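> call design_seq(struct)
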């Protein structure tokens, strides 16, 4: 990408924003882990409640992870789990309501 093709945004170039997003992932994952551990018992209680299905939602590679998580959740529990692409749900919400 040449310098004439790089868009300038409020926080700097688009490439700088992308780089910052990539390099902040480790901290974001650590925060997520901390939160899940902190609320572990609450999450376990919630997941033991009756439900018709558990929905995993993700976009892009997160959707692929959601698909795997849904399959593993269904395999290791007595609950049905499915994964949906976030963008699809956002654009066609009526398709995903019971």
């Amino acid at each position: 990408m040449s310098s004439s093709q790089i868009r300038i945004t409020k926080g700097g170039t688009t490439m700088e924003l992308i780089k910052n997003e990539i390099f902040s992932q480790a901290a974001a994952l650590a925060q997520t882990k901390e939160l899940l551990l902190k609320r572990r018992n609450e999450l376990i209680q919630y997941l033991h409640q009756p439900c018709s299905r558990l929905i995993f939602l993700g976009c892009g590679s997160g959707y692929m992870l959601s698909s795997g998580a849904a399959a593993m959740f269904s395999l290791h529990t007595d609950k049905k789990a499915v994964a949906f692409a976030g963008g699809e749900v956002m654009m066609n919400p009526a398709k995903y309501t019971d």
